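Memo subject: From amino acid sequence to discrete backbone structure tokens
Keywords: amino acid chain, backbone geometry, structure tokens, three-dimensional fold.
Body of memo: The sequence and its backbone structure tokens, given next.
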Amino acid sequence: MAAIDSIKLQEFIGDMISKIDSTILSNPKKYFKEIKDDGLFNQYGSKIEFFSNLIKRYTIYSLDESIIKYEITPNLENELTFNRTQSLVEIEKRPGTFFNTLISKLPFATFFFLPFFSFFVWMVYIRKKYTYTDHLIFSFHNQSLLFILLIVSNLINGVFNIGSEGLFLLIFAIYLYKAMRNFYQQGRVKTIIKYTFLNSIFFILGVIAITILIAASVFIY
């Protein structure tokens, strides 16, 4: 029953998209002029859909072509939206290339992300006689090890055609706990509490950093 409902939902969404595409392609000028009557968020989504159809169906490669052919207002908002749509269309065509580009930028994202994380480490261990720089070096050391382990895991996966990421992440998790105990010289209970808290902060900051990275990559792709 759930599978049938899912199929019906997909068909409904597909029909809605087809109707929107047909409306855009039948009279592009009229459709674009009517976009201004939508709310701000809806305007942005509608313009993305509009420009996407022009790029895919009519091979429009620049906003100047759209301005001349479809009487689109030449302003900064439309220019940015058109450029963003171009990036999204390219990503749709070549998702693998975009993913590889994204992966290559992760070390740079980490470089800017770790100083913020180290601030939380400094706050958690504020009673210890360590400077912020000490915490930052400790964080960079652990992050470097994580990257090395993931590289080794990727090599093993390629050679033996297996998934070893979980094992190497477990190794890193155990190492990080041991490293925190040895470096900060605190008992098991305190270390576990701080370990859990800091890893939660790391995850939250990591999600934020990756979101910003993806958004920036889409914008400049």
User: Anything to note?
Assistant: The chain has a mean pLDDT of 76. The CA atoms of residues 124 and 197 lie 9 Å apart. The chain has two domains: 2-93, 95-220. Residues 188-220 form the longest helix (33 residues).
